[in-house]
């Protein structure tokens, strides 16, 4: 699909404006410089939502990701460029210093934070963030560092090493995606199309792809395109738009959830070497009103397991395997931004899926994780975004 540079730039601007309107991007406040200190939520604040007893634990300045350490404490990234360490028992929080400098603005800034599966032995954490390039360009990067905790409830990163970058760096501040997941000794990264459309189909670029790497950033020999070399060797699947959720089910099958254009948010069963068709096909249309052919018109491209129109603006994805909600083992949960919801997804065991339930949260949901206690832990988007613990209602 060919476009002139001018047409592509205009489409990107139109898309970004529309995304800000419907919730597929950061709120307008996210573009402001500066930061706010984390504040404790009002003591005892709790409410019920559907089957949940919801307890507010803390609040953050534009939180983006949360992840538990083996000792039960939480790492929370804040988009302007801060990493927090929270003790959910005492509700005391400290700062982790030594984080990389981030390009903050639009959808960009500090992204995911994921401990290495053997964190208890090696102390490694992996971070994604928007990194500056030349001439006002930017791109996602993933780095790893050793996390050294202190007795005061904070800590520092030591030996920070960048192990992956989006290629090429481009103008604009949207669609980084940069979710991180580990499975079976490999590092997986979702890489957004950066609102540039065509790179999702270009094997000379790692934009618009799901990537599989070794934990040091090198390329496994058994990747589907390893024989092509270069960034193509990193690729597990292509034709993605803005995959903001990446998770594995109990059988080790990767799934991603991604924002569609104007309509057509997708949940995909991510298969080896598969092409999901963007921007050639989509179940949504361009923001300027031009239609995009549906997946059904091009059967050579993998179709989504679920599409959403109207969109939910998915922000995150996790599979549940805890005991606190035994009826939901094997289900997935997705955070919703414009839909201000938590979405429960059921699977049929044959590659199919359906939205089973939607919980109205009353705020944009940026992230969801299962806690060590089996509860669902959710973070709201934006300044003052709260960390919520969702447990069964009595």
Notes on the structure:
- The strands form five sheets. Strands 3-4-5-6-10-9-8-7 form an eight-stranded mixed sheet, with no helix packed on it. A five-stranded antiparallel sheet has the order 1-2-25-24-23, with no helix packed on it.
- The chain has 394 residues and is mainly β.
- The protein is globular, with a radius of gyration of 20 Å.
- It has a single domain, classed as 6 Propeller (Neuraminidase), CATH 2.120.10.30.
- The protein has helices at residues 5-22, 119-122, and strands at residues 46-49, 52-61, 63-68, 74-78, 82-87, 92-97, 110-115, 124-132, 138-149, 155-165, 177-183, 186-191, 209-214, 235-238, 242-248, 254-259, 265-269, 306-308, 314-319, 332-336, 341-347, 353-360, 365-370, 376-380, 383-392.
- The termini are far apart.
- It contains two helices and 25 strands.
Describe the structure concisely.
The chain is mainly beta and 394 residues long. Helices cover 6% and strands 42% of the residues.
